[in-house]
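Exercise 7b. Backbone tokens:
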């Protein structure tokens, strides 16, 4: 079912993974500041596994997180996309499709995450005909929550949950949930 998805925005190209993405991805995922809202940084091998996993999920589901690059220069910024979550245990709101992003530090503060995410939301609602897309993060991750709000996602105040990939007593287990229905997306300034 794999679709080599290629999305464009005014400044960005959202494209399938390439072998040459490993070096910039590994550098980004080894940055403690980029990974401060994740349990740990990733080694080069774990970054390679991340690419492999995204490719597998794209083959199985038709989509997954994919690289974001600057159209004019080809600079790798990180990844953004939609994914059917598989975290080793069910989420309380399964089945679902999540939107997520991870960008290198030099790409922060330039609205790249919002711009790329808007393209993925359009793809999710118009091409995949999804009824809802969710996003979740740590309560302290205010930068990602700001992106969620810019995307017109609403915090589900009853939706806080313990992430199934982490022990319940882990400092990063608690996550907050944001939702965006297709109807609300249509009403928003896409």
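Sequence design result:
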């Amino acid at each position: 079912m794999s679709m080599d998805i290629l999305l464009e925005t005014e400044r960005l190209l959202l494209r399938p993974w390439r072998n040459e993405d490993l070096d910039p991805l590994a550098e980004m995922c080894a940055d403690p500041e980029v990974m401060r809202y994740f349990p740990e940084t990733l080694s080069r091998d774990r970054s390679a596994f991340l690419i492999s996993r995204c490719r597998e999920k794209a083959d199985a589901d038709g989509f997954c997180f994919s690289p974001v690059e600057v159209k004019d220069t080809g600079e790798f910024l990180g990844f953004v996309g939609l994914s059917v979550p598989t975290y080793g245990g069910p989420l309380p709101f399964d089945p679902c499709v999540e939107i997520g992003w991870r960008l290198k530090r030099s790409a922060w503060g330039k609205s790249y995450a919002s711009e790329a995410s808007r393209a993925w939301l359009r793809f999710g609602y118009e091409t995949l005909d999804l009824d809802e897309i969710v996003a979740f993060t740590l309560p302290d991750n205010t930068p990602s929550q700001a992106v969620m709000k810019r995307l017109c996602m609403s915090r589900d105040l009853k939706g806080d949950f313990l992430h199934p990939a982490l022990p319940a007593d882990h400092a990063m287990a608690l996550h907050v949930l944001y939702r965006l229905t297709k109807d609300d997306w249509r009403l928003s300034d896409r």
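Instructor comment: Residues 152 and 188 are 7 Å apart (CA to CA). The first helix runs from residue 22 to 29.
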